[in-house]
Structure formats: structure tokens, C-alpha cells
Amino acid sequence: MSASPISEWELVEQSKEKMAPNLSTLPYDLLLNIAQHLDVYDVQVVQITCRALHDFAITRPVYRHLAVKLLRRCRALPLPGFQRLSDLTTEQLIATVTKATRLERAWLTRAPRPVRSGRSPYLEDSGAPSDTVSKPRWYKVINSPPDEEVDWLSPITSSYSLCATKSGKVVCWDVHRNACIAQWDPFERWELWKCRVEFEQRTVFFTMAKVLRKMNHDDRHMQFVLMQLQFPESHGQGTDTETPAFSRLATFNTLGVVMNVFLLDPATRLLSAFVWVSTTNTIGLYTLLDWDKREYVFIDTGIECSMSSNWSCILYKEHIVIHAEESEAAHQYFFPLSLLQHYAQPYVTSETFVPKISGRVAPTRNLKSPFYFPSLPARPLSPTSSDDDDSDDDTAAEDEDEARPPSPTALAVAQQPAATPQPASQHTNPFPFPPWYPESAHFVRQWWPSVINVPKMSCTVVLLADHDPVSHRTRYVLAQHYFRVPLLERGGDEAYAEPSPPSSDTSSDTLSLTAGGEGSAQGSDAPGPTPVFDPLMRIWYVSEPFEVVCVLDSMDDEDEDAPTERPRPLMAVDFGHAVWIEYVNSESGDVDAKRLRFVTFPPLGEQVLDPGEDSQPGEDHWLYKDAASRRPTMEGEVWTLEIPEELNLDHVETINIDQSQGSVIISVKNGNIFILCYE
């Protein structure tokens, strides 16, 4: 029996079905626009729908956009060596983005776990002796410089580490070959002050310092040497066969108490330093506008130096910006390079040369933005509290399989109406100064390779301390926030107010940010607009007090017969992450028991990066929300990290973290360096 003929109407309907558009037949550009609203896991689901969408979802533009989204959230990509995004094949790019997303997602919901074999570039071996090869492990042990004490240690990509010793040497170590490949030895005691890696130039810049003499109780005559470690260009996919080389770039002297040195822009050879001017208790700005030229700038900024303030220095659009943070607010002071050039003086490369302050020069713009403090759970804030021994159960902190219950803070922070400016007294500072003071402050820039159009962000992590003079115990908490220059920037440079006329003897107006992003001069009797909080100025805490382990560093003092010692907390930070060693608050009586702790803070959301005119520091600005409450937590999630049995935390000298590879690097007194790899 023959099949019935197809009617004309059915032919038309079948033709319409074939012509009807569907997702797999859309033009590539439209599919790419759709993909820009997807995350990595969504893209992976698209890949298993059909062959056409699979072929689209594994193209380079799709994963490049996902990489840019990670970079915008200030998450570094796990690139091996000095590789850049453009150096990767499409397959390598997919693997890199997938690993970075997996690390970010996992560390926000559970404790980092030891990596499975072969899943970290640190664990690769190149030319290792056969007797050192053992069963695959999640960590690696390499040597530190023989017969030397490590004073400072930092990874330089996943292939190298840079180490400064207490004798003054700087050593570059090949992680894979477990061998020294370059060394700088001044044959006298120098101290490493600052280090900066430039991936595009395959160069590490660092400064070394020594005290020439003490002028009086407060002032020191010091000499600094600026060095570079240049790595040769890579030829092929293998390990570089040529060794890096140290070279000296500049030598300069300072007078006063140098607070910090900043390698602002190696490409333009710009360097600055903060010097405490003891006679006026103000900040002196020392600058080399071009370290190839024999001239310097040394001015008194007139900015008061407070013991509770933390300081950083940033280059922004031909301005040197002094970023200062007090307990309640952040300030930014702008000094145009063109203004500083007027105060340049010649210098002589000699240990006898003493620089002089040219005069007092006020900043041309001042910005101020208050911090947004969350409402924290009620708990004792003093080490002398009667509830001192009440702490979280250790087993809860070490549960790697599931996140903790929702933070009480997340339930206490109310959503604000979108168009209503939040008052400056939204919440009070839960850890005010005094009694809490900054034991150490870490300002972290985006050190990793990036791409154009990714906002330049910075991160501050402050270790706050409260010392009890009776029991001599010190308790610590962590506070973290993000920031950028200028504060509360919206739509270009709206956060800037009109500059006040440059002056060498008067201070410029101080400007507070208002609802429109403009600045208003302080000191007027007229009431000003209600301040608006920059969403970036929201503080994240590890608010449960803990006791961090400190090591004692020697300090040479010419007025004393023996060197004095200063405590250095065993803590390291990276962008949005921190790791430290703390004493376990144990009831077993083992007061010296220690553990390795880790915290990751929520990454940035798009509304924080591109705030609207009525944007407030509300909960929807933050990408991560607690899985149970679907509301963001104001607490950083703290986890206890697993460590190898052979690692004795009693012998640790230095600690560092590489968030891009999920690794913690620890040096110990017996001459070994442990590289612990997590996922």
C-alpha cells in the first residue's frame, strides 16, 4: 500500500520548520553576545548540547571573554612562567580559565584541598636527579641557599623563587631544577625592601637598603640600591637554558626614617619613598622622576603622620597619589609629576651625600571616602574579656566538605533603597583605634599579567592587634577591602574636584565625596551634602580574634651593645586572600600547638566595578552569596590547611602565597622550602 501523498499545506509547514531560526543556527556574533552573559559552567553545559554549539563554545573569543571577567574580578590566571594571555593556545586558554574558575568557586565554599598529582606547575620536575624522584605528592621540598638564613622569600612565577638572606645576598632559585641560577652578593649586610615583577619585560625590580649612620634618635642616613633581575626571552616551549642576570640600576641616599619605597613605574623609571619628617611629624615624599638621571625630589607634603594610619603610593595619570587609611576613612593626595619636577635637585652617588628637603608642597587634590562598616556578631573584643576562651570548634573550621552556616552578619545587614544615600553613621567601627592598632598593613596591586580595559584595582589587608599589658597576650583580627584611584570614580574623572592652586607653604582644601561624586571643601560652616559610601570601601573581616605566630628579626642599633629584636607576624597576603600561622586555642594544655590558616574574601561584582549614579554598597554588589541564605556574608571564611607531616610549624622563618596557582610557600630553619599546592 503506497504512502499517502504529502499535502501542499504540510510541505509549507515543513519548509517553515527548516527555515525557523534556532540557537544552533544563529550567526556567530549573536552567539558570542549571548555567551558574554554566561559563566564557565554555563559554557560547559552549552558544549554538550549539540555539535554546532559545542564547536562554538570552545572557540577562543568565548574563553577570552571569560578570562577577562576573571581579571575584572581581580582573580589571577594560573599562567606558567612569564607567559601572557596572548601566548596561550586556545586549548591552554580553556584549561587556564577552567582552573582559575574552579579555584575561585571552590575556595569560596570549602577549604583548599591538597592538589591531585600533576595539577600544579610547581610540581613539574626538570632535570631532577633520579634519587630525588619519589611517588607523586601534592607538595615539593626544595633547598634554600646553603649556610644562609632566609630573611625574605617570594615566588617569581611558578618556575622561580627570589630569596634574600640575612647576610645580604639575593638568590634566584630554579624551582624545577632545585638549583641556584643567579646570585647577587654585596659582601655586606643589606636588607631587601621592595620587589616588583614586570611580566612584559621578564624582569624583577627590587631595592636593597643599609643604614650609613644614625644622625640622631629619629633620623637615619641610609643608602638604597635599585637592582634588576633580567630573565632572557624564552626560545621554544621548554625550560629556558640561559640564566637570568643581576644588574644595578641606581643608587640613592635618604635622610630621615624611611617608611617604605615604591617602584611606581619601571617602564618610565619612576620611584618614590615615604620619609617621616620628625621635626614636623609629617610625610616627606622622596622621588626619582627618572632613575637614569642624577636628580631627586624631596619635599615635605605637610600631611600629618599618624601612628594609626597605613600608607601606600600609586601612579595615576601623571600624578603620584599618596593613599592613606585611618581607622574610619581613606584619603588620597595628588601630586602632579609636572609640579614635582620644579623641585628637582642634583644628587651625588656617594655615601657622604645627604639629601635636603626643598620645602613644603601641598597636594593639588585631596579626596576622602569613609569606610562602610558591617554589623558584626556580638563577641568579646578584648583579650582580657571573661569569655576569652570561647572560640569556634576547631572541627568546624576544618570541615572541608561543606561551608559553614550563614554568617549572622549576612542576616543583619539590611538592603538599602537604591536611590537613598546611606548616612555616614550606618554602622560604627567594630575595631576602633584605640585599643585596636594596625600591627601590619599590606597593600596589594594587580601584579599578574592582564589585558587592556581591565580596571586597575588595589587591595588592603590590615592585621589589627589588641595587646593586653597585664597578660602580655595579643589578639588579632583581619580587615580587608578593595579600592581604586580616584576614590569613588564614576564616569571618568567625576570624583576629582577642581584642583586648588599649587602652593609651597599652604595646604590645599580637603575634599569629601558627595552623592554626585564631586568633592566639597571641608571646614565650611555650611552643611554639606550627605556622604555616599564607595562600594569598594566595604570592609570584610575575620572578626573572631586569633593569635598569630611571630618570629623575632634582629635590628642593628648602633647605640646598643647588642642588636634589638622586632616581632614579625608569619602572615602573607595576595589579592583577596591571606594565609598565616596561628596558635591553636586548645584545651589540651599544649599552648604551643600551631596550625596553618587561610581565608579568601569575596571577589568583586560588576556593580562594584561599574557603579551607577545611585549605586550604594548594597548586597547585590558582591558576586559571592552564602549558599544557604543567598545573601552575601561580611565575614571572610577561614579554613585550616592540611600540611605535610615533615613540615614543623615551629621552625618556619617565612611564609608566602601565590593565589594564581593555589600555592603556599614556606621556608624553615633547616634550609628547606616547602611549596604546598592546593585546589
From TrEMBL:
Signal peptide: none annotated. This is F-box domain-containing protein. PROSITE patterns: FBOX. Pfam families: F-box-like (PF12937). Residues 386-402 have a biased composition (Acidic residues). InterPro entries: F-box-like_dom_sf (IPR036047), F-box_dom (IPR001810). Residues 373-432, 493-529 are annotated as: Disordered. It comes from Ceriporiopsis subvermispora (strain B) (White-rot fungus). Residues 20-66 form the F-box domain. Residues 409-426, 503-514 have a biased composition (Low complexity).
